[in-house]
Amino acid sequence: MALPAFDRLDTLTKVDSTVDEVRAALAERQKPDGHWLFELEPDATIPAEYVFLQHYLDEIDPGEEAKIAKHIREIQNPDGSWPLFHGGSMNISATVKAYYALKLIGEDIEAPHMARARERILEAGGAAKANVFTRIALALFGQVPWRAVPVMPVEIMHLPRWSPFHLDKVSYWSRTVIVPLLVLMALKPQARNPRGVHIRELFVTPPEQERDYIANVDGSLLGAAFVNLDRVLRRVEPLMPAGSRQRAIDKAVEWTLERLNGEDGLGAIFPAMANSVMMLDALGYKPDNANLAVAKRSIRNLLHDRGETLYCQPCVSPVWDTVLSLQAMLEAGATGRDPGVRKACDWLVEREVRDPRGDWRVQRPHLEPSGWAFQYVNAHYPDLDDTAVVVMALHRADPVAYKEPIERATRWILGMQSSNGGWAAFDADNTHYYLNAIPFADHGALLDPPTVDVSARCLSMLGQLGYGLDHPAVAKGVQYMLREQEADGSWFGRWGSNYIYGTWSALCALNAVGFDMQRPEVRKAVAWLKDRQLADGGWGESLDTYEPGQREACQGSTASQTAWALLGLMAAGDSPDEAVGRGVAHLLETPREEGRWDEPFWTGTGFPRVFYLKYHGYAAYFPLWALARYANLQRSNSGRVEVGM
After folding, report:
1. Under the phi-then-psi rule, with left for phi > 0, alpha for psi from -120 to 50, and beta for the rest, what region is 421?
2. For the chain, which residues make up each domain, given as ranges?
3. How far is CA 43 from each of CA 39, 90, 434, 585, rounded to the nearest angstrom?
4. How many CB atoms lie within 10 A of CB 642?
5. Active site residues
6. Lowest-pLDDT range, 41-55, 208-222, 257-271?
7. Residue 242 CB: number of other CB atoms within 10 A?
8. pTM, whole model, 2 decimals?
9. Phi, psi (rounded to 5 degrees) for 160
């Protein structure tokens, strides 16, 4: 049912006023060189790992650590545990890391917050039940024996590409984390740990007596076979020839140094950067060595100081923040002639990745390099999600001025389509699913297979550029999307939470390529979105929806998820619907400050069930985008969304 005409007019006046206000605030946040950057907040694990690194190296800054400790205490759950996202339930690995970091900093373990944390850890089975990456960190500090972690011989570096396990068969983030880690696992160095801090009190069974460290990851026969293989490798590894081992270490170091990436760091992600620093230190590199010094600086560039508190970000998101801010500004009335838009576009064009050495070339060796990374610089790892959105923004701002980068990136995206019709984040056909059963992969994110949300972004880009259902890549991509639709009409969201994110992405893509938006698949998705609308008019979906049996989990409405739902409904042609009007009213009524809506809950996904993020920019540019889109469609003769997103 449509809203009455007088309600629409009154709402439209309020929308216009809000759009003007928020657009001005977003413009104020633009950096002098044209880009935007918002905080990218992780759970307690990354700040804790930063503390570990400083104690590993014995490079401790007490003032800095006091701020980190305050941050970690502030995000602790009332029951003493630490969650993976704001308001979430206990995660044992996050809780072990947070507790150990606070103890390293000097917190009294009998303080109430430490005692509560310890109780929760012991109730959950103790620190031995933490995940593989946590146990590796504990092994580096001598808190568990090295047999507590799966065997990953550095001789992996010698394996041919046809072997069952090869670095080219795992994701970019796994590669960059694993390679320096292989050296650490071969050398087995010990953290300096200058204060000699231990956490034996967190183990139900003394760690040296524990026998149940290596688990069958997925409970399958293949998983059991990999556990047995781990036992074999554990016996064989000490017999590896010293010469072969040294050559493997040399290969790993060469691989890492080629991708060290200056002050942006290995893979431009904290875990890989920290491993590269510890690897170089373990190999005896002096503090004044240029490679070690720049690797350390890359980590310090991730620190975010809030004044009284400080934390380490997992990475930074300037390209993503810039291109989404730019899309919102263009929707809100800015044009390619505006100086701020031009500066943002030029800043993006300067960061096009033309480096031919990217890891993606393994699967697509003859493809001309192009694309954009998520971070400031990450030349080996452009991603398709950022690239597609950059192309759409450049095309929308000025398709003539930016014709060449648009065409290069389009060829790259077409060439990176996987054989099943979808697109992945960084690689093509990274679908060796059996590897997710190895003991090392208990995080379930070893691979980079095609996903609906990235595929939708690529299809949206192609549709905006004029590619239709008659184009083979589009037709194949649409068929992939339809196969992936859930029984209830929604789509899974890999990189944002969750089904709202996936469904918004899919509806935008289908509209962009000319799919009939009255088809049953679309109407089922629309009905699902409307059914998910909350009593306050907004939409919300908890990150717990990634857990089995919790598809309906919800913490409350969020501005970003409300915006995604609205953008999805409007792409489907439902802008006159009452559900859209109620969602718009919810955004108008939700408090905001300095152009950012109040959004306590997290809506960003790093790895489902393992690692989540709070994109602080999401509560700024997505609601602005949705409100501006609503106003534009209300004034439009066609009522159709004419752009990809």
Report:
1. left
2. 5-27+34-41+334-359+380-442+450-634, 45-196+212-312
3. 13, 12, 29, 32
4. 12
5. 385
6. 208-222
7. 7
8. 0.96
9. -75, 160
Angstrom distance (rounded) from CA 525 to CA 509: 13
Q: Which residue has the tokens 């095309």?
A: 395
Q: Residue 640 is encoded by which pair of tokens?
A: 């159709």
Architecture of domain 5-27+34-41+334-359+380-442+450-634: Alpha/alpha barrel (1.50)
Whole-Å CA distances, 621 to 30, 93, 126:
12, 33, 42
| CB neighbour list of residue 302: distance below 8 Å, 6 or more residues apart | 270, 273, 312, 313, 314, 315, 316
- Coil, strand or helix: which one is 297? helix
Per-residue model confidence (pLDDT) at position 434: 93
Report how far residue 496's alpha carbon sits from residue 141's, in angstroms, rounded to the nearest whole number. 34
Q: What letter represents residue 579's amino acid?
A: A
**CB-side neighbour CA atoms (13 Å) of 175:** 25
CATH number of 45-196+212-312: 1.50.10.20
- Report whether 372 contacts 352 (CB < 8 A): yes
Q: What CA dihedral angle connects 148, 151, 153 and 159, to 10 degrees?
A: -160
Structure confidence by residue, pLDDT tens digits, 304-334: 999 999 999 999 999 999 999 999 999 999 9
Other beta carbons less than 10 A from residue 377's beta carbon: 16
Could you tell me which residues are beta bridge partners of residue 419?
none
pLDDT band per the 50, 70, 90 thresholds, residue 118: very high
Specify the pLDDT at position 7: 67
pLDDT tier at 219, thresholds 50, 70, 90:
confident
Please check the confidence at residue 481 and state whether its pLDDT lies above 80.
yes
- Looking at the DSSP bridge assignments, the partners of residue 312 are 303
d(CA 446, CA 423): 17
d(CA 36, CA 326): 9
